[in-house]
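Async update (no meeting this week)

Hi team, since we skipped the sync, here's where things stand on the single-chain job. The sequence we agreed to prioritize is pasted below, unchanged from the tracker. I ran it this morning and attached the output directly underneath so nobody has to dig for it. Comments welcome in thread, and please keep replies under the output.
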Amino acid sequence: MTEDDRRLVDAVLGNVPGAFERLVRDYQGLCWHIIQRMVRQPEDTRELCQEAFLRVHQCLHQYRGESALKSWIGQVAYSVAKRHLEKRRIAIAEPVGDEDDGVSLLDQLSDGFDLETACADAEIAAGLHEEIESLPPLQRTLLTLYHLDEVPIVEIARITGLAEGTIKSHLFRTRARLRERLQARMGVTA
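Output:
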Protein backbone atom coordinates (compact mmCIF):
# COMPACT_ATOMS: atom_id res chain seq x y z
CA MET A 1 0.00 0.00 0.00
CA THR A 2 1.30 3.45 -0.86
CA GLU A 3 1.58 6.21 1.70
CA ASP A 4 -1.20 8.12 -0.12
CA ASP A 5 -3.46 5.05 0.11
CA ARG A 6 -2.74 4.74 3.85
CA ARG A 7 -3.51 8.41 4.48
CA LEU A 8 -6.75 8.21 2.48
CA VAL A 9 -7.89 5.03 4.24
CA ASP A 10 -7.05 6.51 7.64
CA ALA A 11 -8.93 9.70 6.78
CA VAL A 12 -12.03 7.79 5.67
CA LEU A 13 -11.93 5.54 8.73
CA GLY A 14 -11.42 8.63 10.90
CA ASN A 15 -14.52 10.26 9.38
CA VAL A 16 -12.52 13.23 8.12
CA PRO A 17 -14.94 15.47 6.19
CA GLY A 18 -14.61 14.97 2.45
CA ALA A 19 -12.33 11.92 2.71
CA PHE A 20 -14.83 9.37 1.43
CA GLU A 21 -15.88 11.74 -1.36
CA ARG A 22 -12.22 11.95 -2.39
CA LEU A 23 -11.97 8.15 -2.39
CA VAL A 24 -15.05 7.94 -4.60
CA ARG A 25 -13.73 10.64 -6.92
CA ASP A 26 -10.33 8.92 -7.19
CA TYR A 27 -11.74 5.45 -7.92
CA GLN A 28 -15.15 5.96 -9.52
CA GLY A 29 -13.67 5.61 -13.03
CA LEU A 30 -12.14 2.24 -12.18
CA CYS A 31 -15.33 1.06 -10.51
CA TRP A 32 -17.51 2.21 -13.41
CA HIS A 33 -15.21 0.64 -15.99
CA ILE A 34 -15.12 -2.78 -14.34
CA ILE A 35 -18.85 -2.94 -13.66
CA GLN A 36 -19.85 -1.50 -17.03
CA ARG A 37 -17.64 -4.01 -18.86
CA MET A 38 -19.27 -6.85 -16.94
CA VAL A 39 -22.91 -5.71 -16.91
CA ARG A 40 -23.32 -3.56 -20.07
CA GLN A 41 -26.51 -1.84 -18.83
CA PRO A 42 -25.99 1.84 -17.86
CA GLU A 43 -28.86 1.87 -15.35
CA ASP A 44 -27.58 -1.27 -13.65
CA THR A 45 -24.01 0.00 -13.81
CA ARG A 46 -24.93 3.19 -11.93
CA GLU A 47 -26.77 1.27 -9.26
CA LEU A 48 -24.02 -1.33 -8.91
CA CYS A 49 -21.33 1.36 -8.64
CA GLN A 50 -23.26 2.87 -5.76
CA GLU A 51 -23.53 -0.57 -4.18
CA ALA A 52 -19.80 -1.13 -4.65
CA PHE A 53 -18.90 2.13 -2.90
CA LEU A 54 -21.38 1.37 -0.14
CA ARG A 55 -19.56 -1.94 0.38
CA VAL A 56 -16.20 -0.15 0.28
CA HIS A 57 -17.45 2.23 2.97
CA GLN A 58 -18.83 -0.61 5.09
CA CYS A 59 -15.78 -2.86 4.73
CA LEU A 60 -12.87 -0.44 4.50
CA HIS A 61 -11.87 -1.34 8.05
CA GLN A 62 -11.11 -4.84 6.69
CA TYR A 63 -8.64 -3.53 4.11
CA ARG A 64 -5.22 -4.76 5.24
CA GLY A 65 -3.03 -3.00 2.70
CA GLU A 66 -1.68 -6.24 1.23
CA SER A 67 -2.40 -4.87 -2.24
CA ALA A 68 -2.94 -1.42 -3.67
CA LEU A 69 -6.18 0.30 -2.67
CA LYS A 70 -7.00 0.43 -6.39
CA SER A 71 -6.85 -3.38 -6.57
CA TRP A 72 -8.98 -3.80 -3.47
CA ILE A 73 -11.67 -1.41 -4.74
CA GLY A 74 -11.50 -3.09 -8.16
CA GLN A 75 -12.05 -6.42 -6.43
CA VAL A 76 -15.14 -5.07 -4.67
CA ALA A 77 -16.52 -3.71 -7.97
CA TYR A 78 -15.82 -6.98 -9.74
CA SER A 79 -17.52 -8.98 -6.97
CA VAL A 80 -20.61 -6.77 -7.07
CA ALA A 81 -20.88 -7.11 -10.87
CA LYS A 82 -20.25 -10.85 -10.78
CA ARG A 83 -22.90 -11.39 -8.11
CA HIS A 84 -25.36 -9.31 -10.15
CA LEU A 85 -24.78 -11.47 -13.23
CA GLU A 86 -25.04 -14.68 -11.21
CA LYS A 87 -28.38 -13.57 -9.72
CA ARG A 88 -29.65 -12.97 -13.25
CA ARG A 89 -28.23 -16.33 -14.37
CA ILE A 90 -26.12 -14.68 -17.03
CA ALA A 91 -23.08 -16.71 -18.05
CA ILE A 92 -19.99 -14.91 -16.90
CA ALA A 93 -17.52 -16.70 -19.15
CA GLU A 94 -17.23 -19.27 -21.84
CA PRO A 95 -15.72 -22.43 -20.43
CA VAL A 96 -11.98 -22.66 -20.80
CA GLY A 97 -10.97 -26.19 -21.65
CA ASP A 98 -8.38 -27.98 -19.59
CA GLU A 99 -6.72 -29.39 -22.67
CA ASP A 100 -3.08 -28.54 -23.18
CA ASP A 101 -2.53 -26.92 -26.54
CA GLY A 102 1.19 -27.56 -26.22
CA VAL A 103 1.75 -23.83 -25.72
CA SER A 104 3.13 -22.48 -22.47
CA LEU A 105 1.12 -19.84 -20.67
CA LEU A 106 3.88 -17.33 -21.28
CA ASP A 107 3.68 -18.03 -25.01
CA GLN A 108 -0.10 -17.74 -24.81
CA LEU A 109 0.15 -14.29 -23.32
CA SER A 110 2.29 -13.01 -26.15
CA ASP A 111 0.68 -14.75 -29.10
CA GLY A 112 1.64 -11.99 -31.51
CA PHE A 113 -1.87 -10.56 -31.86
CA ASP A 114 -1.62 -6.79 -31.61
CA LEU A 115 -4.92 -5.06 -30.88
CA GLU A 116 -3.51 -1.66 -31.83
CA THR A 117 -2.45 -2.85 -35.27
CA ALA A 118 -5.81 -4.52 -35.75
CA CYS A 119 -7.45 -1.18 -34.97
CA ALA A 120 -5.40 0.78 -37.51
CA ASP A 121 -8.17 0.78 -40.09
CA ALA A 122 -11.52 2.32 -39.12
CA GLU A 123 -13.57 -0.55 -40.56
CA ILE A 124 -11.47 -3.11 -38.76
CA ALA A 125 -11.70 -1.05 -35.57
CA ALA A 126 -15.49 -0.98 -35.81
CA GLY A 127 -15.57 -4.73 -36.38
CA LEU A 128 -13.19 -5.33 -33.51
CA HIS A 129 -15.31 -3.17 -31.22
CA GLU A 130 -18.45 -5.13 -32.14
CA GLU A 131 -16.68 -8.42 -31.55
CA ILE A 132 -15.35 -7.28 -28.16
CA GLU A 133 -18.86 -6.21 -27.17
CA SER A 134 -20.17 -9.66 -28.09
CA LEU A 135 -17.74 -11.42 -25.74
CA PRO A 136 -18.99 -12.89 -22.46
CA PRO A 137 -18.57 -10.49 -19.51
CA LEU A 138 -15.45 -12.06 -18.03
CA GLN A 139 -13.51 -12.28 -21.30
CA ARG A 140 -14.55 -8.74 -22.28
CA THR A 141 -13.45 -7.41 -18.89
CA LEU A 142 -10.12 -9.25 -18.82
CA LEU A 143 -9.32 -8.19 -22.37
CA THR A 144 -10.05 -4.53 -21.80
CA LEU A 145 -8.33 -4.39 -18.41
CA TYR A 146 -5.17 -5.92 -19.88
CA HIS A 147 -5.00 -4.36 -23.34
CA LEU A 148 -6.83 -1.05 -23.02
CA ASP A 149 -6.29 -0.12 -19.37
CA GLU A 150 -2.86 -1.79 -19.29
CA VAL A 151 -3.51 -3.37 -15.90
CA PRO A 152 -0.81 -5.97 -15.18
CA ILE A 153 -1.85 -9.63 -14.93
CA VAL A 154 -0.96 -9.72 -11.23
CA GLU A 155 -3.33 -6.81 -10.52
CA ILE A 156 -6.10 -8.38 -12.62
CA ALA A 157 -5.65 -11.53 -10.54
CA ARG A 158 -6.10 -9.52 -7.35
CA ILE A 159 -9.19 -7.80 -8.74
CA THR A 160 -10.89 -10.92 -10.07
CA GLY A 161 -9.58 -13.56 -7.69
CA LEU A 162 -8.61 -15.67 -10.71
CA ALA A 163 -5.24 -17.39 -10.98
CA GLU A 164 -2.74 -15.66 -13.26
CA GLY A 165 -2.60 -18.74 -15.48
CA THR A 166 -6.37 -18.70 -15.86
CA ILE A 167 -6.28 -15.04 -16.87
CA LYS A 168 -3.52 -15.72 -19.41
CA SER A 169 -5.49 -18.62 -20.83
CA HIS A 170 -8.65 -16.49 -21.13
CA LEU A 171 -6.66 -13.73 -22.85
CA PHE A 172 -5.06 -16.16 -25.27
CA ARG A 173 -8.35 -17.82 -26.19
CA THR A 174 -10.19 -14.49 -26.43
CA ARG A 175 -7.58 -13.03 -28.78
CA ALA A 176 -7.71 -16.19 -30.90
CA ARG A 177 -11.50 -15.89 -31.04
CA LEU A 178 -11.31 -12.22 -32.04
CA ARG A 179 -8.69 -12.98 -34.69
CA GLU A 180 -10.85 -15.74 -36.21
CA ARG A 181 -13.97 -13.60 -36.20
CA LEU A 182 -12.21 -10.61 -37.75
CA GLN A 183 -10.70 -12.80 -40.44
CA ALA A 184 -14.08 -14.34 -41.21
CA ARG A 185 -15.85 -11.01 -41.09
CA MET A 186 -13.50 -8.91 -43.15
CA GLY A 187 -10.94 -11.20 -44.66
CA VAL A 188 -8.39 -9.58 -42.39
CA THR A 189 -5.10 -11.29 -41.76
CA ALA A 190 -4.53 -10.67 -38.09
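Quick observations from my side:
The mean pLDDT is 84.
The chain is about 70% helix and 0% strand.
Reply here if anything looks off.
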